[in-house]
Amino acid sequence: MVENAALIRRPVTIKSFLVPLLTRPAVAKFIKYAVYLFLVVNFGVYTVQDYFAYKAALSSNAPWSEILEQFATTIDTAAWLGLVFLFELETHALSDEAFKGWIPKILRVGRLICYVSISYAAYGYIAESLDNYNVKLLADVSSACQLADQGTSLQLNSIIYEEITAANCSSLSDDNVFYQVTGEVSVVDRDTLEMNRWMDWINVNNALVWLIVVFLIEVEVYLQAADRFSSRALAVARQIKTFFYLVLIANAVIWSFTGYALYTWDAFLWIFGFWAIELNLAEWEQDRLQELAVARDTGR
Description:
Blueprint lengths: L1 H8 L4 H5 L6 H33 L6 H7 L1 H22 L9 H29 L3 E3 L15 E3 L5 E3 L5 H4 L5 E4 L5 E3 H36 L6 H26 L3 H38 L2
Parallel strand pairs: 2-5
Antiparallel strand pairs: 1-4, 2-3, 4-5
Helix pairs in contact: 3-5, 3-10, 5-6, 5-10, 6-8, 8-9, 8-10, 9-10
């Protein structure tokens, strides 16, 4: 109990907020695995969504670079799923004895592959954001109905496209200025383009902040493995990480107020997914502090 009190008295961080859940392990376990299940479902949803966006936005002979850019979210989500799985193994599922052989090397290689994929996805978000500034004005088009029944899709927001038909063209957009992003076969109206530019930079911000968060988790795992629970570096890493979690929450709120319900759901789901890892780290710290206290008391 002394260790628990000491843990909670530290500066408020995400981990100190989650510590009370350790008193109800059954509830914590249920929440954690429910979140993991939703993350897998979420991956399936984004894969399907990226596929339909690819079919609407790109031609059949589009280069692989553009196709991979279009599937940046799928690649990103797959890598994050892998990363959560590997962190779950290291911080909870595997016993201490497992880290004396080849398993630590496998975990490090696996995480490196995930980080490369995540970094590539972040690059994809940046490239996609820049693409929205490389557009061609469709000077002869002043109404979506001029493009009806030609197999052309109108981009309605960053992720949703709708094929323009005579039946729906008047309801899709009342704008009179339309653009085509270079390399894409879909079109976008002026207001949507401006919104997409803004929202895409939120995506970039979110991707880069997540890279910072997982780097700080790596730092925390390293310091805890070295029993440096009272180190200044660990305390600072936790406080900085808490700040960036707040940035991620702010991004989710922005998506909520701008009509991106799926992005909002996704954002909070991933935050909760990594809070499950934070809970593992808190439990690991609590158990290790108790072990060290027993060893100290027994003189070992």
